[in-house]
Write a structure and sequence with these properties.
Blueprint lengths: L2 H25 L4 H14 L6 H14 L5 H29 L3 E2 L2 E2 L16 H21 L5 H25 L12 H27 L6 E3 L2 E3 L1 H26 L2 H4 L5 H4 L4 H9 L2 H10 L7 H13 L6 H21 L6 H6 L5 H11 L5
Antiparallel strand pairs: 1-2, 3-4
Helix pairs in contact: 1-2, 1-4, 3-4, 3-7, 3-16, 4-5, 4-7, 6-7, 7-8, 8-14, 12-13, 14-16
Length: 375
């Protein structure tokens, strides 16, 4: 199946889910304008991204089961994937408000939409819209998985990962408060903590862990005389992979165009604790650091000039050369992740048929989606 066909099949499940959520809203006797607003919230914020997180649940289930999925298996895996996309939408709608972002996925951020079907501007209603996107996750899980033995495991995964993500967001926000940015607090260790908690758990670990639960992978099992804890193995590999992904994102924010990445990069102007600035602070000279202190995270009439000064310093091939440092980092990260994948004990042929044992291809498939990405 082509990438486009795979995406379209996954999107068809979103339509089923959206219709189900709208029917539920109506069953709660919600006014027509509120139902219309919720429908627009779903359409605007949920299906517009690359959908890698959601589709990865389907891909991981198929790899673990080592066979084509039945229609019911596909729907359940895709529904779990869409629950991650709802979680992502919840985070992004909130994050854009906190950051005062301008655009997302090539369109205005939801809170900046001036009119929703004649019902008025979004503005602060986006706060409740974010909450309702999160609430939809648990409604769907209850509707479709309540009778499954792994239902509580699914609930715990979503709750724990959401909590970890919010911890990472907290550290990010207080490390770089918009009204009092002090980049002297930034370093690569703090950046690693933020991205692992804020991004890696929900963008990488969650997809695979949900697939593992659906396939019946236990918490512990014996393989070739060794005790394996598969969820810890998944954490060991996928959290560094998520860190690599966020470093890519940080790099693309400064180096990519709006057409390439679907948004206007704002990390420099917003004073974000980005991998790029942490690297510059770690390896830069006193003069380069002083330039950062004077220009990074500065807003005002001349912010475009200050932002360009930072970019020029990043781009200096005779100086910091952030593109070269990123290339070196990227090659090392991919090599180390592949080495970790190779350490995962591979199940035998009989275990592969059952589908309840961890397989290296789950991680290789995920890594292949993000290597050398441009957006």
């Amino acid at each position: 199946m082509s990438k486009a066909d795979k995406r379209n099949k996954f999107l068809a499940v979103f339509e089923r889910i959206r219709e189900e959520l709208i029917v539920h809203m109506k069953s709660e006797n919600m006014p027509e304008d509120a139902v219309t607003w919720f429908n627009e919230n779903l359409l605007y914020n949920v299906p517009g991204g690359k959908l890698n997180r959601g589709i990865s649940v389907v891909d991981s289930v198929a790899i673990l089961l080592n066979r084509p999925l039945t229609d019911d298996e596909y729907f359940k895996a895709a529904l779990l994937g869409w629950c991650i996309e709802l979680l992502q939408a919840f985070f992004l709608v909130s994050d854009d408000m906190m950051d005062g972002s301008i655009s997302r996925r090539g369109q205005p951020c939801w809170y900046r939409v001036p009119d929703v079907k004649g019902l008025g501007k979004v503005h602060n209603i986006a706060i409740n819209d974010a909450f309702i996107l999160e609430g939809a996750i648990y409604h769907l899980l209850k509707s479709h998985f309540r009778r499954e033995t792994y239902y509580v495991d699914l609930l715990e995964l979503f709750q724990e990962v959401t909590y970890k993500t919010e911890m990472g967001q907290l550290v990010d926000l207080i490390t770089a408060p918009e009204d009092n940015i002090d980049i002297r607090k930034y370093n690569l260790d703090k950046h690693t903590f933020i991205v692992r908690y804020k991004t890696a758990y929900y963008s990488f670990y969650l997809s695979v862990a949900l697939a593992m639960r659906m396939c019946g992978v236990p918490d512990v099992y014996e393989l070739n005389g060794k005790t394996l804890e598969p969820y810890k193995e998944a954490d060991r590999i996928l959290i560094p992979m998520g860190e690599f992904f966020q470093v890519q994102d940080d790099y693309l924010d400064y180096h990519g165009t709006e057409e390439e990445i679907g948004k206007i990069g704002t990390d420099i102007v917003d004073g974000k604790c980005s991998w790029c600035v942490c690297t510059a602070l770690t390896y830069g000279s006193d003069a380069q650091k002083q330039l950062l202190f004077e220009n990074y995270g500065k807003k005002g009439a001349d912010q475009a000039v200050w932002e360009q000064a930072v970019k020029d310093m990043y781009n200096d091939e005779q100086g910091l050369n952030i593109p070269k440092r990123y290339q070196e980092y990227s090659e090392k990260a991919v090599s180390e992740i592949n080495a970790m994948i190779d350490q995962v004990p591979e199940p035998g042929a009989q275990d592969k048929i059952k589908g309840d044992r961890l397989r290296r291809d789950v991680f290789r498939a995920f890594l292949s989606k993000i290597t050398d990405r441009k957006a």
